[in-house]
Design brief:
mainly beta
Length: about 675
Amino acid sequence: LQDRDGYLWIGTSNGLNRFDGREFRVFRHDENDRGSLPDDYVTSLIQDSSGDIWVGTDGGGIGRLDPGEARFTRYHRNAADPALRISDDSVWGLLEDSRGLIWAGTSYGGLNRINPISGEIREYRQDGGSSRGLSYDNVWPMVEDPNGDIWIGTDGGGLNRLVVDREEFIHYRSDGKDGSLQSDFIFSLYIDSDQTLWVGTAGGGLHRFDRNQGIFTAYVNDPADSESLSNNSVRAMLEDRSGNFWVGTTDGLNILDRETGSVRRMFHVADDDQSLSHSRIHSIIEDAGGILWFGTRDGLNRFIEPNFVGIELEGDPAQIPRRNDIRSIASGPEGIYIGSFAGLYLINGEVQQTIVPVGIFYALARVSEDLIYAGTQDALLEIRAAEDGWRVSRLAEVQVNDLHLDDDGTLWIASQGNGLGILDPRVSDSPRWLRSSDPSLTRIDSDIVRRIAKFDESSLLLALPDGPPQLINRSSLSFADSPWPEEIESLIQMYRSADGNWWFSTDRGGLYAYDGDRLHYLDESRGLPSNVIRGIRSDGEGSLWISSIRGLASVAGPSNSGDFRIDVFRQEDGLPGLIFNPGALAVDESGRLLFGSTEGLARRVDDPPGNGDRLTAQAFPLGIEIFDDLDSRQQRYSPGEVLELSPRNTLLYIKVTAFDFRQ
């Protein structure tokens, strides 16, 4: 349970826990304290509309907690006060309905309806199978439907629907007929956003109830079908804010596709600390920040939606590792072009098209949906779309490291040993080359060009393996020296962000940022995932990202004080691998980042968790302490209490939290 203030409440077989994101406060039963937790075995939790926490226990009845008082009012079978007397002390289900009434399901005493204002308690018991009573007195889960009817699951008596206005029970039992329940033991109940009732049973699987026809459709485990329910005992259900329908069972967690009936399964994996701590799922909630929490037989699990999704190329299993070694990326409305260690491909949603099945594609430049230039380990290629596929022409026999396309259609080619190439398709079908052996005015310093970037409207910047980068005037083809400090040499990657800062990686390792006045240096000691930087790029929102041989990172800064914020992303964030290839990054038509790794394509999700309106963290006080001096505390206050200060008080200590459970 997450309460209205943001605390997480976790019921266990050894007490009740309140989690504030940093610390756990444990509530336990104390025989000498009548205001303590009624029993340590916690079975159910709700918060009512007034803010009180109701705690069902197995043996102690119900504890009603006013969070400001931190003391429990106990409802139990032997209470002297009728307003606190319930039919049984084993309480396994709690529900507050739309009228503010509390319903408590017990193991041996049927159902109790509690009016927390008037103190009136009414019992509902088994009545020989008639519509005046329950079908069975062992009551577990309950849920209220949009009509105000209460659905009640029993442990052996099937499902009951209480039509509140008529005080009439309708019983649904397992009778072996088509459309009936497959089990009379009901573990869980849930109503989704379509107002459909779902029933989780012990041994009979999951059921969807068609209210118009009065029949149940069962989803059960099929040992021969890996997309069927993982287990037939369903203990918990939740529809998250993204529309995913989670089903927790005695053996495995499932995401159900409610249209097709297929599921995706998750289990505990012994050697994987990112898997579930146990496959037996007891409870599921989604907190205010969109984080999913799973209560298991072996502890609490937090699930955060990944920041990235991995995309793998399909095909011959023997070729898949080479195909998914992504070396270059380009994007257009027609899809994402992926150059790999084994060919060139076009992906559009679920459709994957092979353009060129062989070759190492180091660089891509998309001109239009009908024309793309590609640089491979031994050629510059012109690839044109045709009615019968793609037509490939070899324009030059050279290894291509990078391609840069000007707005006028001129293609600039960074080669491995042949200098800088210039292809103007309006003039020639073959590129012109500028080499280190040319006359001095147009002589490049090296015949190996690693990268090309736009410097300004008239010049390009060339990254060379030895020495500083060079500037080339696009019109005159004359070269000029680098305008940056001498540390900026032997560049591997370079990028100019929207704020005008230049970012570089060099053979020395690490990341340089130059803001025009000051050169900043970042490395692993300052938070980078690795000193080997493979790519630098801004996303559609202007945030700077780097790829490396140990994951990705977003970099913000420098601030006025010269500080940077670095957030690192690894496989637990959805990356297909940690080793990313040089220059293999792009932004697609939706502004999503694309990174090429040695194990597939990583794509930033549309709405990463914690961004935008997904997370609304608010600060809440956890406690206040007043001291006369550092060694003598005068008094401790809890939220809601009146705070009194005197002239002798010298120190006020306030502890707060913002309930961002992502950190």
